[in-house]
Design goal:
Structural class: alpha/beta
Largest sheet: 6 strands, parallel
Strand content: 15-25%
Number of helices: 23
Shape: globular
Distance between the termini: 72 Å
Radius of gyration: 25 Å
Helix content: 25-40%
Length: about 575
């Protein structure tokens, strides 16, 4: 069945067929034809953002909350280029997203027409795929393919750039009944021989570790992971992108590895004789100096993207496949081995790791001057709000504290910008997550620097009735940059003082609670440790408007443990100038 309509109507109809129920965007000249039929759509809600970057991050937050591709829309030129940052962010963190941009009419393409930018060329390295659509009849097939590519295999962002005259042209709408994409065949089923070899190596290892990455979250494999972990008794580390896929309260969870990971997690990888990497990519923030990472370990590397296998660290057993299927097959193989009497003995290994956990727990000390500890704020936030909420972090010190001091028991409850480290991610991503899952409490845990990059989206949240809650961990500085200046630049604090919480003045620029109120939100401030609980509870009691809480915290607090840049994980410090005594572990 076909129906006569414009390309713009075909686009909206295609979004409806693809299952999109929300579009985050901003109209403009080249995309304007699409906004007219969007006005009449009964099933696609459009949320008017205040900046295209916010639209992209909101689409990411929606994708995290729902598992479905988030959709954002922008016009040509500057509208499209403002999506570059969220597209890159989604690409780095494997977030399914479809970005639709208007383009100048086909006769103007290549002429440097008004608001023309080659957005397909610009985004080629930062999208999973992109399209330039010049003919109206190609719109349904392209949208169908875009949603399929974004959500299958290794998820990622797909850009669809549509010329204005294609949106205005008349066409026959026909939704494709099947997709013919001969060059796109993601491998999801792992090779049985490789899985059996991995099971054999687990049984024979003396010091194995599961190194669990965001691929386990993306594939929905948290239940299979728990079965495998408990079946084998192998220690588990969960990366920044995998927080929550394995419960923090589980006795086998060693915590997060990497630059700001736990001593036990970092030490387990360094001392391991076998690392089973599941949906992880051996990035520099986990490995530290690569040539000194886990020197005695054999590597089993399972990933749905074959390009990741042996990219940074040679895999002794490479397994290409979807993590859910890989882990499920590995469970079967391990059970078969155990039935045949082949089972690992890790008692001595666990004794070593338990000592690391006992001697070097992640903790903090309150400031001598009585100022509010940021770690305490975040820890109490997690304890009061609980494990069912979603916590959406920006980037920097507050992100690391949110990863360290909130207990994550369920997948999808920690959302953050991992690979790209995008300041400004938190508020719009929290907005998108709340839209995707309205019944869930959503807290944005942001820094005063990050918050000022996208806080205009508070207007969107207030007007659209999206009651997110924002905890601004306000130390008056670009906190992580200041930490590096303290440690590596002799305390020369060049351009990191934001004046949002000055030490010796009462003028705050800006005053966050007053700013929140100007945006139609509830604004609160907390400066004393004894007020933290009551302030969080007051914020939780508000359910009909966004809430912003300015937690004015100590200026000099640092994130520990830490592996310094470009050095070995063996040199992790659990506090300044204090390192574990590895000799006691050997």
């Amino acid at each position: 069945m076909t129906e006569r309509m414009t390309g713009a109507q075909s686009l909206i109809r295609s979004l409806e067929h693809a299952g999109a129920d929300v579009v985050f965007g901003i109209p403009g000249g080249a995309i304007l034809p699409a906004y007219d039929p969007l006005y009449d759509s009964a099933s696609v809600r459009h949320i008017l953002m205040r900046h295209e970057q916010g639209a992209g991050h909101a689409a990411e937050g929606y994708a995290y909350a729902t598992g479905r591709p988030g959709v954002c829309m922008a016009t040509s030129g500057p509208g499209a280029t403002n999506l570059v940052t969220p597209l890159t962010d989604a690409h780095m963190d494997s977030v399914p997203m479809v970005a639709i941009t208007g383009q100048v009419a086909t006769p103007l393409i290549g002429t440097d027409g008004f608001q023309e930018a080659d957005i397909c060329g610009i985004t080629m390295p930062i999208t999973k795929h992109n399209y330039l659509v010049k003919n109206a009849e190609d719109i349904p097939r392209t949208i169908a393919e875009a949603f399929h590519i974004a959500s299958s295999g290794r998820p990622g962002p797909v850009l669809v750039d549509i010329a204005k005259d294609a949106l205005q042209a008349a066409t026959e709408f026909a939704w494709p009944q099947r997709l013919d994409m001969p060059g796109y065949r993601p491998v999801t089923k792992p090779h049985g021989k490789q899985v059996r070899e991995a099971a054999r190596m687990i049984a024979e290892a003396r010091r194995p570790v599961f190194y669990v990455g965001g691929g386990v979250l993306r594939s929905g494999a948290h239940q299979e992971l728990r079965v495998l972990a408990e079946l084998t008794g192998v220690p588990v580390t969960t990366t920044l992108m995998a927080r929550g896929v394995f419960p923090d309260s589980h006795p086998q969870n060693l915590g997060m590895p990497g630059m700001h990971g736990t001593v036990a997690a970092v030490g387990s990888l360094q001392k391991a004789d076998l690392i089973v990497a599941l949906g992880a990519r051996f990035d520099d923030r986990v490995t530290g100096r690569l040539d000194s990472f886990a020197p005695g370990a054999k590597i089993v590397h399972a990933d749905i993207d074959p390009a990741e296998i042996s990219k940074n660290r040679h895999a002794d057993v490479p397994i290409v496949g979807d993590c859910r299927e890989v882990i499920a097959d590995l469970v079967v193989a391990v059970r078969n081995d155990q039935s045949a009497g082949r089972q690992g003995d890790y008692a001595a290994w666990w004794a070593q790791l338990d000592r690391l956990r006992d001697v070097y727990p992640t903790g903090y000390e309150d400031a001598d001057d009585g100022t509010l500890s940021p770690q305490k704020v975040i820890q109490r936030l997690g304890e009061i709000v609980g494990p069912d909420a979603a916590y959406v972090a920006g980037v920097g010190q507050h992100q690391m504290w949110a990863a360290q001091f909130i207990g994550y028991e369920k997948p999808g409850t920690f959302i953050n910008s991992g690979g790209l480290g995008t300041m400004g991610f938190s508020v719009p991503a929290a907005l998108g997550a709340k839209v995707g899952d309205p019944s869930r409490t959503v807290w944005a845990v942001d820094g005063d620097g990050c918050f000022q990059m996208t806080n205009q989206e508070l207007a969107t949240a207030a007007i659209e009735g999206i009651p997110i809650k924002v905890a601004v961990v306000n130390n008056g500085n670009l906190g992580m940059v200041r930490q590096w200046q303290t440690l590596f630049y002799e305390g020369r604090y060049s351009n990191t003082d934001l004046q949002t919480a000055p030490r010796d003045a009462k003028v705050r620029v800006p005053d966050f609670p007053r700013l929140a109120e100007a945006y139609g939100c509830v604004g609160l401030r907390c400066e004393r440790a004894e007020d933290v609980d009551a302030t969080i509870e007051k914020a939780m009691a508000v359910d009909d408007a966004p809430v912003v809480v300015d937690f004015s915290v100590n200026h000099d607090a640092m994130v520990w443990p830490m592996v310094g840049p470009g050095i070995s994980n063996d040199n992790i410090q659990y506090a300044r100038d204090m390192a574990p005594d590895w000799d006691d572990e050997d």
